[in-house]
Write a structure and sequence with these properties.
The complex is a heterodimer of chains A (about 375) and B (about 280). Chain A is of the alpha+beta class and about 375 residues long. Chain A folds into 2 domains: about 160 residues, no CATH class; about 180 residues, Histidine kinase-like ATPase, C-terminal domain (Heat Shock Protein 90), CATH 3.30.565. Chain A contains 11 helices and 5 strands, in the order H-H-H-H-H-H-H-H-H-E-H-E-E-H-E-E. In chain A, helix 2 packs antiparallel against helix 6, helix 3 crosses helix 6 and helix 9 runs parallel beside helix 10. Chain A is rod-shaped. Chain B has 2 domains: about 160 residues, 3-Layer(aba) Sandwich (Rossmann fold); about 100 residues, LytTr DNA-binding domain (OB fold (Dihydrolipoamide Acetyltransferase, E2P)). In chain B, strand 13 and strand 14 form a beta hairpin. Chain B is an alpha/beta fold and about 280 residues long. Chain B is built from 8 helices and 15 strands. Classes of the chains: A alpha+beta (about 375), B alpha/beta (about 280). The interface between A and B is large, with 54 and 65 residues. Strand 4 of chain A pairs antiparallel with strand 7 of chain B, so a sheet runs across the interface.
């Protein structure tokens, strides 16, 4: 099985780079700079207390700052993954830093006295220095730890925001793509030129049908053109579009297509995504009637549902859907637009018709306060 | 105008005497699934080339081949897009037995191929001047010799492949047919969240429900697009597009949380590699 990555975002959030890599990453330029700055501040604060030259004090505080930074980064990366519920994840590293501070200072002093511990213990001046240095180091360590934790938090929040943004822009792009391809699919050149060729044939033959057929073509084109000022899209306008389309198709394949469009007048005022039913009817032609030598019948209908909603359907007696027939963007797009207009309760289902054909059904829930985008 | 409903038929009174009779002129066949367009082409041909007799009209590729074999016309006008067998398929069956002119509406790829292969074609809706050019070329070719212009078989093969690729039939499963009560529901695979083996059957789960189908998980693993559907367990295939997140647990296992379904799917150790590189 290929290791695929069809996502722009990573579904495996628990998976992170190895700990050592993260440890090294934590020792970034910024954190080292912060540690150095803290070390310098500590040295300036401690300078009046010590009799030593400033450079020696600075050396010690810088050394301590670096030790604390290493310890903090290590504690952060190697702490157990599962912590007790009451324990915030920053607590352990901060405690470790707090404990390390006096120890590290002790180490500095032991080094300073050349390993002679007694020399250190019996010098009140040195003990005082030790306590001062420990206190300042402790404060320095805690400040360092808290700053680091805060930065990490901030980075997480930003990453999450970025991810949300990315996801949103991906969805935006998807919907724009879908709308574009829907528009392009509507006035497919193949459909348009074939229809025009038929109209031309009628006109040349002086057939009285030419007028009505042109009317249907105009109605279809008007509805299928991208509309800038769309009014309230209703089932009534949708049904008119579907009828125009079917009349054109029947002119083209009179021996292969019969149709019936009927809807109770009570349903005509319902809000409906423009070109929604048309998508289903075009599907019925493309997958059901057109591939069939004998053709078939398309029925478009609807009925009110007991609860106050409505059911609409498009059924055909064509060759039926093969399992590998590409559904096209139109159907998925229609699902989304139904949800936008009528909420998640709106449903679009497809089923097979016996003995052959496909039936698409749309269930619209009972009216709800109108909102949603069109 | 003739009633187009009664096609296919021989239009020269051949019904009474289906045996071929040596036509004084040159015979032709027109194949198009749209009757008005067959009629129009026949009428224009009559005006431009009175000696040409349209002996048969076919509604699809299969009829075109049958009628061609019956009448053996010297010219065949074949619509590219027809139900069942296409015009390209018919042309391959006809081979070099006739001069073939393709008729098409805006099949850009086909037009380019015809240009390259020097194959005659008409684009619908055509005007009479264009048809007159075609007629002239046909007349010249028929007058010069009895030897047919070589039909580029390779080109036709390529075009037939191209058409098939444009047809809805694709390689991967796009619909799952599941019996729910008395009806057979068609569920687009893009909506399927996961599939799980259930003895002889397979459970198909989507956001709005679930159903049992007869195919085994093994068959489905072969038929579904591996870009989206991956096996995560001996008995489970999941649609990656519906995975909310994968949470790694202890002992080299993981749990899949889904969008649109409450249940959590386990990933077994041997399939964990699927997620490792993400």
């Amino acid at each position: 099985m290929p290791a695929v990555d069809p996502f722009e975002h990573d579904p495996l959030q628990a998976d992170r780079p190895p700990r050592f890599a993260r440890f090294l990453a934590a020792l970034s330029g910024t954190s080292v700079a912060v540690a150095v700055a803290l070390g310098v501040v500590a040295a300036i604060l401690l300078n009046p207390v010590f009799a030593l030259p400033f450079t020696v004090v600075l050396g010690r505080t810088l050394f301590l700052a670096m030790v604390l930074l290493l310890v903090f980064a290590a504690a952060r990366q190697w702490q157990p993954r599962r912590l007790p519920e009451w324990m915030p994840d920053w607590l352990l590293p901060v405690v470790v830093v707090g404990l390390t501070a006096p120890l590290a200072v002790a180490l500095v002093y032991v080094l300073a006295v050349g390993g002679n511990v007694l020399d250190f213990v019996f010098s009140p001046q040195r003990v005082r220095g030790y306590l001062w240095l420990s206190a300042i180091t402790l404060i320095m360590g805690l400040v360092l730890a808290l700053v680091a934790v805060a930065r990490e938090r901030l980075a997480q929040v930003r990453a999450r925001e970025l991810k949300v943004e990315l996801e949103r822009s991906r969805l935006d792009k998807q919907s724009v793509d879908a709308r574009l391809s829907l528009l392009q699919a509507q006035i497919e050149p193949h459909f348009l030129f074939n229809t025009l060729a038929n109209v031309q044939a009628l006109v040349e033959a002086g057939s009285p049908r030419a007028g009505p057929v042109l009317q249907s073509l105009i109605a279809y084109l008007r509805a299928a053109m991208p509309r800038l000022h769309a009014g309230q899209p209703t089932l009534e306008s949708e049904i008119a579009l579907v009828r125009a389309y079917l009349q054109l198709m029947q002119m083209r394949m009179p021996d292969r297509l019969q149709f019936e469009v009927g809807l109770p007048t009570a349903l005509l005022g319902l809000r409906f995504p423009p070109m929604g039913l048309l998508t289903l009817v075009e599907n019925a032609v493309r997958h059901g009637i057109d591939p069939s030598e004998e053709g078939g019948r398309i029925e478009v209908g609807g009925e009110p549902l007991p609860g106050g909603g409505a059911r609409l359907w498009v059924s055909d007696s064509g060759v039926g859907m093969t399992e590998t027939a590409t559904p096209g963007l139109g159907l998925a797009n229609l699902r989304d637009r139904l949800a936008a207009l009528h909420g998640q309760a709106a449903r679009l289902t497809l089923s097979e018709v016996v003995p052959r054909g496909v039936r698409a059904e749309i269930d619209l829930p009972a009216g709800r306060p109108d909102e949603g985008s069109t | 105008m003739k009633d187009p409903h009664d096609a296919p038929m021989a239009t020269t009174g051949a019904q009474a005497e289906p045996a071929r009779w040596p036509a004084p002129g040159i015979s032709a066949l027109i194949a198009d699934d749209e009757p008005l367009l067959r009629e129009r082409l026949a009428q224009h041909l009559q005006r431009l080339w009175p000696a040409l007799q349209v002996v048969a009209q076919a509604r699809n590729g299969r009829e075109a081949i049958e009628l061609f074999d019956q009448f053996e016309p010297r010219v065949a006008f074949l619509d590219v897009h027809m139900p069942g067998l296409t015009g390209i398929d018919a042309a391959r069956a006809i081979g070099r037995r006739a001069e073939v002119v393709f008729v098409t509406a805006y099949e850009q790829y086909a037009v380019q191929a015809f240009e390259q292969g020097a194959i005659d074609y008409l684009v619908k809706p055509f005007d009479e001047a264009r048809l007159a050019d075609t007629v002239q070329r046909l007349q010249q070719r028929l007058a010069v010799s009895e030897v047919r212009a070589p039909v580029d078989d390779a080109l036709l093969d390529r075009l037939a492949d191209e058409l098939r690729r444009r047809e809805p039939a694709r390689r991967w499963l796009q619909w799952i047919k599941a019996s729910i009560g008395p009806t057979v529901r068609l569920i687009p695979v893009s909506q399927v969240v996961y599939l799980r083996s259930d003895e002889k059957y397979t459970l198909v789960a989507w956001a709005g429900g679930e159903a049992l189908i007869r195919k085994t998980i093994r068959e489905l693993a072969d038929e579904l697009d591996p870009q989206a559907f991956v096996q995560v367990h001996r008995s489970t295939i999941v649609n990656l597009h519906h995975v909310a997140q994968v949470v790694r647990g202890a002992n080299e296992t993981a749990d899949i949380h889904l969008r649109g379904r409450q249940e959590v799917l386990p990933v077994s150790r041997s399939f964990l590699h699927v997620f490792r590189q993400m």
